[in-house]
Amino acid sequence: MNCALALRMLNAYVDDEVDAATAAEMAEHLAGCPACRRLHEQRLALRTALRTHVVRETAPPDLRKSILRELDALARPARPARTSRWWQTALIGASTAMAGALGGWWLAQPQSFESLPQFAVAQHVAALTPEGPRIDIASSDRHVVRPWFQGRLEFAPMVRDLSAQGFDLVGARLDRLGDRQAVAVVYRLRRHVVDVFSWRGSRDHPLPAGDAIIRGFNVVTWSDGDLDFAVVTDADHAELERFTAAYRAR
After folding, report:
1. Three-class DSSP category at 144
2. 132 Rama sector, left if φ>0, alpha if ψ -120 to 50, beta otherwise
3. What span, in angstroms and rounded, lies between the C-alpha atoms of 66 and 207?
4. 187 bridge partner residues
5. What is the pLDDT of residues 103-119, one digit of tens each?
6. pLDDT value at residue 111
7. Which of 39, 44, 116, 133 has the most crowded CB, counting CB atoms within 10 A?
8. Which one-letter DSSP state was computed for residue 223?
9. How far is CA 42 from the centre of its chain?
10. What are phi and psi of 233, to 5 degrees?
């Protein structure tokens, strides 16, 4: 089992909704993958917090009858609907309870992505396959990879040979981050895939430099001239820092 499949199965695994064979594969993967294990621990903590802190109130016995009476009155065009402060309070209470339940459900779902680094993580996960990362041009020679993008991009991607540092160039692919055309240059460190996303940015609003953990993956971002960069990997943070330093070295 790889990280992409593990992420798709994670919610069902946390809720004990997978068969015994899949559960065994998930347990084996989590034991050997720190990134997925951290995400699994976060989901367990969220479930525990929701179960501990969500307040459950039992509605009064006559609440259902009262609401049905009011709905029946609204359904009759000949009779004007009557409202009361108690009825409004009851509906507001019911709506609040429903909103709380839906909010808990929404929090338990995979995180939505709105920023470009979040899009990069989503595209990194989507490109992971059992056969290896999806690529459009497969080569360990940067002099083969970089020219391939001529005529396909509005900018020239940065492709580095980092084999001396232990990061093997695998290839690259065209990609999109939201509505922006992007490139993903793909490296491998042992069993870990490292995607370097780059896209045309803005000199007036450069991408803030920093690092984060998004959906269990380590991410580093920065700007260089008119290009923005986001490196995504499930390798540990120390290896990511080493990679980024080598990649940005002049």
Report:
1. helix
2. left
3. 56
4. 169, 194
5. 554 444 444 345 788 88
6. 41
7. 39
8. E
9. 13
10. -160, 160
Per the CB < 8 A criterion, the answer to whether 216 and 160 are in contact is no
Indicate the SS3 state at residue 133: strand
pLDDT in tens, 132-185: 889 999 999 999 999 999 988 888 899 999 999 999 999 999 998 887 899 999
Share above pLDDT 70 across residues of the chain, in percent, rounded to a whole number? 79
CB contact at 8 A, 217 and 232: yes
Contact 156, 199 (CB under 8 A): no
Predicted local distance difference test score (pLDDT) of residue 221: 94
- The neighbouring-strand residues paired with 200 are 227
Look up residue 86 and give its two tokens. 């108690």
SS3 of residue 219 by DSSP: strand
- The domains located in the chain, with CATH, are 3-53 (no CATH), 63-107 (no CATH), 116-248 (3.30.200.100)
- Strand stretches in the chain, DSSP E: 128-129, 132-133, 137-138, 168-177, 180-189, 192-200, 210-214, 217-224, 227-233
Give me the amino acid identity at 136.
D
